[in-house]
UniProtKB/TrEMBL annotation:
Pfam families: ABC_tran. SMART domains: AAA (SM00382). The keyword Plastid does not apply. The lineage of its organism: Bacteria, Pseudomonadati, Pseudomonadota, Alphaproteobacteria, Rhodobacterales. The gene is ssuB. This is Aliphatic sulfonates import ATP-binding protein SsuB.
């Protein structure tokens, strides 16, 4: 993996001439940033702007890396939907990026990741044979397999039960250590546990929410973690 780098997204995004957001967001290099805000404010749009994906609107602004280099080939992206190819097995879906690039696929590493997400015994099953949560874990394994310095995650744990969600948060924090991560989430608890930086987004501005003075990954039952998530939830409810 190449050295981590930061990202800045600054500008306005409009859909049919109507302002969706006016944002200035900086992702520190090698850190986790969690982005929260009400539904429809444009969080997923910010995520899609970074790799240059279609957003259904017009962005006037800039997306820049702090090292000044192009972003192509340096991003791993996990969308809200799992985007698994239905004709491939779970293992083949994890390997698809490497095979499309014509690279040597590390099958052993892919199998280890499937084992870590609890799906090694389902490696040969196609997506229609998997539950929603299993499909999401397969997509997570695929994203982690890519081993990129910039990782974009759009509600990657939303289909999981509480216990599995905590397990997958811990796995992602471990595997993505040292990478620049942007996680879109609606869950204040998740953000408080994982984030080095929390950004709260509205249509008109983005603001930094203070995180506890303990390093991520934070203990769920730490009073400082609980206090932060409680205050963050109250803030998000008041802003809705």
């Amino acid at each position: 993996m190449t050295a981590p780098f930061g990202i800045r997204v600054a500008g306005q995004h409009r859909i049919n001439g109507h302002l969706l957001f006016d944002a200035d967001i900086t992702l520190p290099a090698g850190r986790w940033t969690c982005l929260l805000g009400r539904s429809g404010v444009g969080k997923s749009t910010v995520l899609r702007l970074i790799p240059g994906l279609e957003t259904g609107g017009r962005f006037t602004g800039t997306v820049t890396a702090t090292d000044g280099k192009p972003l192509q080939g340096r991003i791993s992206y996990m969308a809200q939907s799992d985007l698994l190819l239905p004709w491939l097995s779970a293992l083949e879906n994890v390997l698809i990026g490497a095979r499309l690039r014509g690279a040597q696929a590390d099958v052993a590493r892919a199998r280890r990741l499937l084992d870590r997400v609890g799906l090694l015994s389902h490696a040969d099953k196609r997506p229609h044979m998997l539950s929603g949560g299993m499909r999401q874990r397969t997509a997570l394994a695929r994203t982690l397999f890519e081993n990129r310095p910039l990782v974009l995650l759009d509600e990657p744990f939303s289909a999981l039960d509480a216990g599995t969600r905590a397990d997958m948060q811990e796995l992602a924090a471990e595997v993505l250590q040292g990478r620049t991560v942007l996680l879109v989430t609606h869950d204040p608890s998740e953000a408080t546990r994982l984030a080095d930086q929390i950004i709260v987004m509205t249509a008109r501005q983005t603001s930094i929410w203070p995180v506890p003075d303990t390093p991520a990954l934070r203990a769920i039952d730490d009073p400082r973690t609980f206090d932060c998530q409680t205050r963050l939830l109250a803030h998000l409810r008041a802003a809705a």
